[in-house]
Amino acid sequence: MKDVSFGQYYPVSSYVHRLDPRLKLLFLIAYIVAIFLASNFYGLAACAGVLVVIVIAARIPFGKVLRAVRGVVFLVIFTAALNILFYNGETVYASWWVFDITKEGLIFSAFLALRLVLLVVCSSLLTYTTTPVSLTDGVESLLTPLKWIKIPVHALALVMSIALRFIPILMDETERIKNAQKARGADFESGNLLKRIKAMVPVLVPLLLSAFRRADELGDAMDARCYTGSGKRTKYKKLRFTWRDLIAFLVGAALIAGVVLMKIYLPAPY
After folding, report:
1. Cα–Cα–Cα angle for 144, 219, 153, nearest 5°?
2. Alpha helices in 147-242 (DSSP H)
3. Which long-range contacts (CB under 8 A, 24 or more apart) does 191-194 make?
4. What local confidence, expressed as pLDDT, does residue 267 receive?
5. Domain that holds residue 56
6. Is 56 inside any structural domain?
7. CB burial string 209-247: b at 16+ within 10 A, e below
8. What is the CA 135 to chain-centroid distance, rounded?
């Protein structure tokens, strides 16, 4: 869990960090749409190239960005293995029982694995370059039209902000509890899968108690400061679009247009 980077903010002064959080959210949605619109490796290569440019502009080490993939390595490998074994194709390389390894299956598995990696990395970049407070303000601003139908947008944005703040806190708490249990002789690494799951029970119970205690303390702190989500609340920092946001918007529009053109004029690899 300590390798999971989602929800962690990387403090540095960069072009991407100074972008409007609303535009970052819209760009992320557009980027995900572009990834799913891509039907060949040319489209994914264009998405990957844009992602590399964003990482360079954000001044985040590539090693730290790729660390986000470590949390979903098992999912990527498992999904790729299933597609290799069960994808129907014409060119068969090997066959055993009900399993067939085909050329088309290998290409599709590589395509799907690359798509999953790009999805995880681009989502992690949002939290790397945006503070939870800015992200909450951006979500609340984008969902403002929902206030007209009496949906508590501010409360939803606040819940999301608190959840993002608790992710790294709970990860650190889990690591601390595991180290304490190891000092008492607990073993989390040996044995079969069932034994490892049972070994996590002494960690989950104090972790849940700690999470409830932190939530209770946060509620008391908010009550002590007379916090209320109702009424017209003002903001210390107002969100404004600048020329940086215009450039990012044009990049996102060009990316989607390029992927759509590649989808139309370039054939799929499988």
Report:
1. 10
2. 153-183, 193-199, 201-224
3. none
4. 65
5. 21-265
6. yes
7. ebeeeeeeeeeeeeeeeeeeeeeeeeeeeeeeeeeebee
8. 13
Q: What are phi and psi of 190, to 5 degrees?
A: -100, 160
Residue 120 lies inside a defined structural domain of this protein: yes
Residue type, 178: K
Cα(38)–Cα(16) distance, integer angstroms: 24
Own/partner long-range contacts of 68-76 (Cβ < 8 Å, ≥24 apart): 68/4, 68/5, 68/6, 68/120, 68/121, 68/123, 68/124, 69/117, 69/120, 69/121, 70/3, 70/4, 71/1, 71/3, 71/4, 71/5, 71/6, 71/120, 72/116, 72/120, 75/116, 76/113, 76/116, 76/117
Residues with Cβ within 8 Å of 95's Cβ and at least 6 positions away in sequence, in order, are 101
Count: domains in the chain:
1
Residue given tokens 């918007």 in the structure block: 249
> Is the distance from CB of 28 to CB of 254 less than 8 angstroms?
no
Residue 11 lies in a domain: no
Q: How far is CA 131 from CA 15, 137, 188, in A?
A: 15, 10, 34
- Under 8 Å between Cβ of 128 and 58: yes
Q: What is the structure's pLDDT at 1?
A: 46
Mean pLDDT by 10 residues, the chain (270 residues): 60 86 87 85 85 87 81 82 78 74 83 88 86 82 82 80 79 84 78 75 85 88 79 71 82 80 68
pLDDT of residue 246: 84
Residue 187 belongs to a domain: yes
